[in-house]
Amino acid sequence: MLLGYTATMLDLLAPLVVSNTTKIVLLSLDGLAGLPRAKTGKSEMETASLPNLDTLATEAACGLLRHVAPGITPGSGPGHLGLFGYDPLRYPVGRGVLEALGIEFDLRAGDVAARGNFCTVDAAGRITDRRAGRISTEECIRLTERLRDIRLPGVEVLVEPVKEHRFVLVLRGTGLSGRLSETDPQTLGTAPLPVRGLEPGAERTAELVNRFVDEARRRLVDAAPANMVLLRGFDQLPALPRFPEIFGLRAAAIAAYPMYRGLARLVGMEVLKTGSGFADEVATLRQHWDGYDYFFVHYKDTDKAGEDGDFDAKVAALERFDAFVPEIRALGPDVIVVSGDHASPSVLASHGWQPVPVLLWSRYCGADPVEAFTERACAAGILGVMPAQHLMPLVMANAQRLTKYGA
């Protein structure tokens, strides 16, 4: 029964949507959830001083979100699709597509896009740093120039810088497949993996990508720390239901990082220009407050610190975010959601499978015993542990934007 329900959720909601003037703000702290540090027994959220988020939690309905399934670690793409109301199992999207759209690349039907990392390998070809020390964007631009004139038979090769160590690879031609394995083993001390086709007919595309990687290795041999590339998230442009049409919302996205802008653009949100810091994002929110009904606001610093394995930096990132909460509340939103797309526990130094805290604040959210915005506190909230795609119907109901179902 639950699988059938989630599979038809968007079809169920669309005819129930009613117009209203209420305003919704979704604050997504990337990689929000963590795990306790052994010496204290407290997670990053439990260690941080978060007076504004704690106050908001006491006034909100709280719970935990599971973005894919128990034990499954979500990427940022499926994690955010769930926050937007899409079942990520029904609407899979490769990260390469999101990165390409995020830099406003002219991605066309049939193109195959991959997200690339410049990485560091040792003399034996083993990965020692998957992000090449997070090189500067300027260095990334310089290195992509080395790769742009790689030629492959029968296809056009397009390489574009994104931000820091990230770039986009696009193959353009006929008969290509996005059903490919990744070269990134997601671990250190091993060599990049060869690409394999994951469906009949994908072998030719896999061979082309492997030739690109071999050529990139030769061109980057003297470019340490960025002396190799990793490729993941291969995909072709999908057709997703449009968020503004499903929910009847003038929807805007505010994100400094390209991938999240790409994800918002893919579902039909208008992506607002903003600066590189969260203060810039909040200023953009304030500037465009009257123009939209729904704002997706993305915060990256929590994920960056968690993936770097820096517990104290993640605590500091949480506290920096907390300081902006009063300014956002002062705008007068009718519904505030605070959550994230996945866990990034510092003790794992990677994405995690753990459920993510969520708070839903409105005049109508109901009583809740939760008194702090932490993983353990939110586990006692009235929302319980729920699939992330079930959040958006609750948001719409609290915004008084859904009529009743049935007679």
> What is the ordering of alpha helices and beta strands?
HHEHHEHHEEHEEHEHEHEHEHHEEHEH
Helix content: 25-40%
CATH architecture group name of the largest domain:
3-Layer(aba) Sandwich
Q: Give the neighbour order of strands across the main sheet.
A: 9-8-10-1-11-12-2-13
Number of helices: 15
- The CATH homologous superfamily name of the largest domain equals Alkaline Phosphatase, subunit A
**CATH topology (level 3) name of the largest domain:** Alkaline Phosphatase, subunit A
Quick rundown:
With 407 residues, the protein is an alpha/beta fold. The protein has helices at residues 2-7, 9-13, 44-47, 51-58, 76-83, 95-102, 137-147, 203-219, 243-247, 258-266, 278-287, 301-307, 311-329, 375-378, 391-398; strands spanning 24-29, 61-66, 112-121, 127-129, 156-161, 166-172, 228-235, 251-254, 270-271, 294-299, 335-339, 356-361, 384-387.
Task: Tell me what the structure shows.
The chain has helices at residues 2-7, 9-13, 44-47, 51-58, 76-83, 95-102, 137-147, 203-219, 243-247, 258-266, 278-287, 301-307, 311-329, 375-378, 391-398, and strands at residues 24-29, 61-66, 112-121, 127-129, 156-161, 166-172, 228-235, 251-254, 270-271, 294-299, 335-339, 356-361, 384-387. Helices cover 32% and strands 18% of the residues. Helix 11 (278-287) packs parallel to helix 13 (311-329) and helix 12 packs antiparallel against helix 13. The model is unreliable at 1-7 (pLDDT under 50). The protein has two domains: 2-92 and 240-398, 3-Layer(aba) Sandwich (Alkaline Phosphatase, subunit A), CATH 3.40.720.10; 99-235, no CATH class. The longest helix has 19 residues, at 311-329. By secondary structure, it is an alpha/beta fold.
